[in-house]
Specification:
Jelly Rolls, 2 domains, five-stranded mixed sheet, five-stranded antiparallel sheet
Length: about 500
C-alpha cells in the first residue's frame, strides 16, 4: 500500500489535472477579478504552430506573470523554469509566445491580484496585436472643432486592367463600390493629449483602450476606398476644442491596436470647411477655401450632396476629355510600359486634378506662427525653409510646411472653379510628387509635364519633402507628406 503522503500528492495532481480549464482554439478568453480562473492553470490544444497572446485590461503596477510549457512531462509551469518552461514577457500590456504543441501544453498564471486580462489562443496568427507603424490611423484634416480620421487600410480593391480590344476605363463621375463583406469592427478612441490620464500611459491593448471614454461627437462613420492601399473606416468627429492637441487610436475587433497618432485642431479663427465623401475625388478629405456650407444642408462640411455644381461640372468635364484622349493609345495589347497602363495614368491624373481643383487650406503651427513663405518662391528655390535658432542648444533647423498666405483679392489663385471664400487664408501647396506621379504613369505623347526644380516648381508645389529636390524617392527632408505627429508639410492628395 502506498504511503499516505504519496497518495495525497497523487490525489492533488489528479484533481488539478481534472480542474484545468481548456482554452479553446482560435478564441479569446476574458478574465476579471469577479471571474478569476480557479485554479489559474489552463490546458492548451494540440497545434503545429500555436500562438498564445496576453492582453492586460486594467492598469497595475504588479502585472500577473504567465508561464507556458509545450511538454507533457513538465507539469505546471512556473518561475522555477526548466528546458520546456517559458515565461511570456508582457510589455505595454501585451505578451505573445509562439511554439509547437504536438501534445498540447499547459499555461499557468501567477499573481493575478485585481487585474483583468484576456488570453488568445490561435493557430492563425496572434489574436491580440499592437500593429506596426505601417498600419497607423490616418489623419485627413481638422478644423477648429472637427477631425476627419481614417483607420488603417484593411482590404485591397483590385481593379480589372483594360485589355485588348476593350480599353474601357472608369467614368469621370464614378461611384464608390460597396465595402467588402465581413469587414472588421473598428473603434476610434480619441482623447486630449495633455489630459491628466493620457491614453499613452495605459496598457496599449484593445480591451484597455476600448474601455476609455472617447472625446467629441461622432457625426458620421462609413467605409471609404480612398486610394490603392484599400478600404478604410472613416470618422468625422465634431465638438472638439480649438487649438488643442489630441491623441487617437483605432482598435480592430477589440483586440488589435493601431496607433497612437497625434494632431492639433486649428485655431478658433480658422474659416475653411472640410470637403470629403466625393466618389469622383476619393482622395479629397481636407479643408478647402470655400464659404461655409449652407445651414439647410444639415452639415458643417461639404460632400458630394451639397457641393456647388460650378465646381464639379468643370472637373468632371476635364476628366472626361482626358479619358477620351487617353483611350486613343494602346492601353492593353500594346502597352506603352511593362509597369503601368492607361488605368494607372487615369487614376494618377484624377488624383492630380482633384488636388489642384480643391485647394487645401492650412495654418502655421501655433509654436511657429511665422513658419510659412510670405511670397511665392523664386524659380531656383527648393520649396523648403529652415529655421536656424540663435540658441546653440536648440535643434539646428526645422522644416516648414509649404504654406502661402492668400488674401481675399486672390482667393482663386490656385483653382479657378472655386468661388471666392471672402476672407484670407493660407494655402498648402500640393506635393510635387502628385504631379510627377502622372508624368511617370502616362504615355509621353499625352504631353503632360510638370515644372522642374531648376526653374519654377517651388512656386506652385511643395518640393523636397517626400522626394529630394533631385528626385530621389523617399530621400526628402521629411520622407512623406505628413507624419503620425500631426505635421502636414504639403498636400499629398
Amino acid at each position: 500500500m502506498l504511503p499516505e503522503t504519496l497518495l495525497c500528492l497523487l490525489n492533488a495532481g489528479i484533481a488539478l489535472a481534472q480542474a484545468k480549464q481548456q482554452l479553446p482554439l482560435n478564441s479569446n478568453s476574458q478574465f476579471s477579478p469577479s471571474n478569476p480562473p480557479n485554479p489559474p492553470v489552463f490546458s492548451l490544444p494540440t497545434a503545429a504552430n500555436l500562438t498564445i497572446t496576453v492582453a492586460l485590461c486594467s492598469s497595475t503596477n504588479s502585472p500577473p506573470k504567465f508561464f507556458v510549457t509545450n511538454s507533457s512531462s513538465a507539469g505546471v509551469p512556473g518561475p522555477g523554469g526548466g528546458d520546456d518552461v517559458f515565461e511570456i514577457a508582457v510589455e505595454e500590456g501585451h505578451g505573445s509566445w509562439t511554439g509547437i504543441f504536438d501534445d498540447g501544453g499547459v499555461l499557468a498564471v501567477q499573481d493575478i491580484g485585481q487585474t483583468s486580462f484576456e488570453l488568445g489562443i490561435s493557430d492563425q496568427g496572434p489574436i491580440h496585436e499592437l500593429l506596426s507603424n505601417s498600419d497607423l490611423p490616418l489623419l485627413g484634416d481638422t478644423t477648429s472643432n472637427q477631425a476627419l480620421i481614417f483607420s488603417p487600410a484593411f482590404a485591397e480593391e483590385v481593379e480589372p486592367r483594360p485589355t485588348y480590344p476593350n480599353y474601357t476605363l472608369p467614368s469621370a463621375n464614378s461611384s464608390q463600390r460597396s465595402a467588402p463583406s465581413g469587414s472588421p469592427n473598428f473603434t476610434l478612441i480619441l482623447s486630449p493629449t495633455s489630459s491628466s490620464s493620457p491614453l499613452t500611459a495605459l496598457p496599449q491593448t484593445g480591451c484597455m483602450l476600448s474601455s476609455q471614454r472617447s472625446t467629441g461627437t461622432l457625426s458620421s462613420q462609413n467605409f471609404w476606398l480612398r486610394d490603392t492601399k484599400g478600404w478604410r473606416n472613416q470618422w468625422l468627429i465634431e465638438a472638439l476644442t480649438p487649438a488643442t492637441n489630441y491623441t487617437a487610436y483605432v482598435v480592430q475587433d477589440r483586440t488589435k491596436v493601431s496607433g497612437p497618432i497625434h494632431f492639433v485642431t486649428k485655431s478658433a479663427s480658422f474659416a475653411c470647411p472640410l470637403v470629403f465623401n466625393l466618389p469622383y475625388c476619393p482622395n479629397v478629405a481636407y479643408t478647402v477655401p470655400l464659404p461655409q456650407p449652407p445651414t439647410t444642408a444639415g452639415s458643417n462640411a461639404y460632400t458630394a450632396l451639397n457641393l456647388p455644381d460650378e465646381i464639379t461640372k468643370p472637373l468632371l468635364a476635364y476628366l472626361t476629355n482626358f479619358t477620351t484622349t487617353l483611350t486613343t493609345f494602346a492601353c492593353g495589347r500594346d502597352w506603352y510600359s511593362p509597369i503601368v497602363g492607361c488605368d494607372d495614368c487615369q487614376r494618377e491624373y484624377r488624383k492630380w486634378l482633384c488636388t489642384i481643383t480643391f485647394t487645401r487650406c492650412g495654418e502655421p503651427s501655433p509654436a511657429n506662427p511665422r513658419s510659412f513663405t510670405s511670397s511665392p518662391a523664386p524659380p531656383d528655390a527648393t520649396g523648403l525653409s529652415a529655421l536656424h535658432p540663435k540658441d546653440p542648444s536648440a535643434p539646428p533647423q526645422r522644416v516648414f510646411s509649404a504654406l502661402l498666405p492668400q488674401s481675399t483679392d486672390i482667393a482663386k489663385a490656385r483653382s479657378r472653379t472655386l468661388p471666392a471664400m471672402g476672407s484670407a487664408y493660407a494655402m498648402l501647396l500640393p506635393c510635387l510628387e502628385v504631379c510627377t506621379a502622372v508624368d511617370r504613369a502616362c504615355p509621353s505623347l499625352v504631353g503632360f509635364t510638370c515644372p522642374t526644380v531648376q526653374f519654377n516648381a517651388a512656386a506652385s508645389y511643395g518640393v523636397g519633402y517626400s522626394d529630394s529636390a533631385e528626385g530621389e524617392q523617399g530621400e526628402g527632408a521629411t520622407g512623406a507628406a505628413q507624419d503620425r505627429w500631426g505635421n502636414i508639410w504639403c498636400n499629398g492628395g
